[in-house]
Request: fold
Amino acid sequence: MYKISVIGDKDSILPFKALGVDVYPVIGAEETRKTLDTLAKNKYGIVFITEQSAELIPESIERYNREPVPAVILIPSNQGSLNIGLNRINENVEKAVGSNIL
Reply:
C-alpha cells in the first residue's frame, strides 16, 4: 500500500496534515531533492510538491516523471501559482489526445 505526502514551505503544506497527509517542510534545493528521493524509496505513491519547491529541482522532477511511482504532482503554494502544474497538465493532455483540448 502506498502513502501520500506533500513537500514545500511550511506555511503552504501545513493544512494537508489535517487531511492525514504526511507533510515535509523544506528549505532550499538540496533539502527538497533529498526529501523527494527519500520519499520515493519509502513507498510513497503520490508526492505533492509546491511549484516553488519543484522549480528548484527541475532535473529531479523530470526523472520522477519518467517513473511510474511515485506520481509527482505540482501544486500552487500559499504565494500563488506559477502555472507550472497547469502547463504540465496541458502538455500531457496534448500528448495523449494529439491536440490541446483544454
In short: The CA atoms of residues 50 and 75 lie 5 Å apart. The chain has a mean pLDDT of 86.
